[in-house]
Design goal:
With 88 residues, the chain is of the alpha+beta class. It contains 3 helices and 4 strands. It is globular.
Length: 88
């Protein structure tokens, strides 16, 4: 049985009002419904820090695997996201 400690943390970098970020969130949530208890998602608004704006300002939405540090930037579809999540 998987425990909370076995969960992979995902960080979704984006901003409020970003339609691409909203689309990425829908894709992510739809996929995670099929993969319960494996992932914990944290949303991060890049406008809260200059360094995040510098890193992600023109790349959002970006999903980062908190364990591996790997990132998947937009555009992506559900299959590409599944492949990204199941690689590690």
């Amino acid at each position: 049985m998987r425990t909370h400690n076995d969960m992979v943390k995902l960080i979704l970098y984006g901003t409020d009002g970003c339609h691409l970020c909203e689309e990425a969130e829908v894709i992510l949530n739809r996929l995670l419904e099929k993969l319960p208890m494996r992932f914990k998602v944290e949303q991060c608004d890049i406008t809260t820090a200059d360094e995040l704006m510098a890193l992600y300002g023109i790349r959002i939405p970006v999903i980062k695997n908190g364990q591996s540090g790997n990132e998947l930037g937009w555009p992506f579809d559900e299959q590409q996201l599944r492949d990204f999540l199941l690689v590690d």
